Please model this.
Amino acid sequence: MDLNIHASFLPHDDPDAALAFYRDTLGFEVRNDVGYEGMRWITVGPVGQPGTNIVLHPPAADPGITEDEGRTIAEMMAKGTYASIVLATTDVDGTFDRLQAGDAEVVQEPVDQPYGVRDCAFRDPAGNMIRIQQLKP
Model:
């Protein structure tokens, strides 16, 4: 089989803040920005990796989500426990410094984890956990 990860989905509750974080702070390129019925889906991805995408979406856009589920999702997003993604870099300390200087919300400074990786963590404007791991040489 020839499979690739094409897109991952992260919720946002403020499209302009999400766009600023992923485009301006992380340096991702905007690949699509679509509005529909007052909602907005923004597709971003790392420069030079056109086949890897993150779709920033309204959390309750699925018609199968009940009002109670929508409230639960909003509560979990506010706590930062609803969604996450792991990114990788060749220089986690340098990346941390650049993101911290850009006012990203720091969750964890770079640290060597007992499970064998060096990583750091931030939250995006919607509360999604963004972990960044050091690539091994």
